[in-house]
Amino acid sequence: ETGVTQSPTHLIKTRGQQVTLRCSSQSGHNTVSWYQQALGQGPQFIFQYYREEENGRGNFPPRFSGLQFPNYSSELNVNALELDDSALYLCASSLVAGGNTGELFFGEGSRLTVL
Amino acid sequence: GESVGLHLPTLSVQEGDNSIINCAYSNSASDYFIWYKQESGKGPQFIIDIRSNMDKRQGQRVTVLLNKTVKHLSLQIAATQPGDSAVYFCAEGYNDMRFGAGTRLTVKP
User: Fold this and answer.
1) Nearest residue in A to B50, CA atom
2) pLDDT per residue as tens digits for the range A35-90
3) Band of residue B1 on the pLDDT scale cut at 50, 70, 90
4) Mutate: best of B89, B92, B97, B103, partner A, most A CBs <10 A
5) What is the DSSP string of B45-69?
6) CB-CB contact of B68 with B16 (8 Å)
7) Which pLDDT value is given to residue A27?
8) How far is the alpha carbon of B14 from chain A, nearest alpha carbon, in Å?
9) Distance CA A68, CA B77 (A)
10) Residue of B nearest to A2 (CA)
11) A-B C-beta contacts closer than 8 Å
12) What is the pLDDT of residue A99?
């Protein structure tokens, strides 16, 4: 177990709806990264949050947004859902030291299906 | 384009044999590489990492080799066990880690 918990584990939405996914980081970790993993693909970096600020973003449109809270937990929000947003969304926590992210500890993911 | 890619999408080995999973990367400035294991229904799990100032690093039953000349990375698993069956990803980078597409390792009893 990594100590990273994600909710919900599975959810189904329809096109155009909005979704919020949640992540509790491992105790002592100050950084949360979100990844999208389509079926049969490797994870793709969405963004990272460090001390409640976005600290890097991948090639994802603005309708993907996030938050990090003072307790370092995090949310991923996706607006105007599209069919291609169907994927496993992974949260990973880490401890930033020396300017670089340490080892990533992944949760088990939230599987989103968009119909 | 993809900055890391795996050579084979699937690999099947006999229990007890050694496994070698390969990965190529395109960015010669890449400094940090990691191998992850992902079992069905779970998130990726860290196996071993290596920095660009090293050629080889060993862990428990695993070895990572880095060839910077040809931009190639490999993961060797000794005495492969059924519990090693999973999808293996190579990844590079720090804060915005880039993953390859993965190799599914199947271990036959």
Assistant:
1) A103
2) 999 999 999 999 999 989 999 999 999 999 999 999 999 999 999 999 999 999 99
3) very low
4) B97
5) EEEEEEETT-SEEE-SSEEEEEETT
6) no
7) 86
8) 24
9) 38
10) B45
11) 53
12) 61
Q: Which residues partner with B33 through β-bridges?
A: B50, B92
Please, which residues 24-53 of chain B have a Cβ atom closer than 8 Å to chain A? 32, 41-46, 49
> Which of these, A104, A91, A109, lies nearest to A34 by C-alpha position?
A91
Strands B103-108 and B10-14, by their bridges, are parallel
pLDDT tens-digit readout, B28-39: 888 999 999 999
Q: Residue A38 has what pLDDT?
A: 95
B99 to chain A, any CB pair closer than 8 A? The answer is: yes
The answer to whether the CB of A82 falls within 8 A of the CB of A114 is yes
The dihedral of CA A22, A26, A30, A36: what is its sign?
negative
Q: What is the mean pLDDT of chain A?
A: 93
What single-letter amino acid sits at B77?
A: I
Contact A45 B96 (CB under 8 A): yes
Q: What mean pLDDT do residues A20-40 have?
A: 93
Closest CA to B99 of A28, A74, A41: A41
Question: How far apart are the C-alpha atoms of A95 and B26, rounded to whole Å?
Answer: 27
Q: Is B78 exposed, middle or buried (0-12, 13-18, 19+ CB in 10 A)?
A: middle
Residue of chain B minimizing CA distance to A38: B101
Instruction: With CB atoms and an 8 Å threshold, state whether B43 touches A103.
Output: no
